[in-house]
Amino acid sequence: RGDQDQGLDHLPVQQVLELGGKRIGLVHGNRPRWLEWPGFTWNMFFGQRWFLAPRFYVSVVRRFEGENVDCIVCGHVHRPFIGDVNGTLVANPGSAYINILDRRTQPGQYVSVGMLEINGGSLQASIVPLPERWQELQREWFGNVEREA
Predict the structure, then answer these.
(1) Which of 60, 88, 118, 135 has the greatest count of CB atoms below 10 A from its CB?
(2) pLDDT digits (tens, 9 = 90+) for 83-101
(3) β-bridge partners, 2
(4) What is the pLDDT of residues 102-139, one digit of tens each?
(5) Cα atoms found within 13 Å of the Cα of residue 27, Cβ hemisphere only
(6) What is 14-142's CATH number, 2.60.40, 3.60.21, 1.10.287, 3.30.420?
């Protein structure tokens, strides 16, 4: 459940799934607003999305301490990322939609999804860029649901 999913309080904030013999942690990954606000303000003025991102991924891994996960899939920063964070594979698929603020502060950002492949005991994460026309199709199908901040 993400930080903008009003009405979905019945969904867990985080969850561990066992798939193909691997334990996968799932979490959106939002942090307290008092911690997010400096980064948001920085982004508004300087267009730099990664102000607090390294610490963000460390905090995501800490949420699953003791869960013995093989991989954590998270979101929140809307930027694709795959990496080893304190010995844990962390994958952020990016975003299948780029909002108005991100388009202004991060021109050239692309829409994407992630893929986890479990094969013969190995686990591999990848980022799959979506076609540029993807956002146009979304607007055709669902209408323009963006609101200017």
Answers:
(1) 60
(2) 999 999 999 998 877 655 5
(3) none
(4) 555 555 567 888 999 999 889 999 998 877 666 666 66
(5) 19
(6) 3.60.21
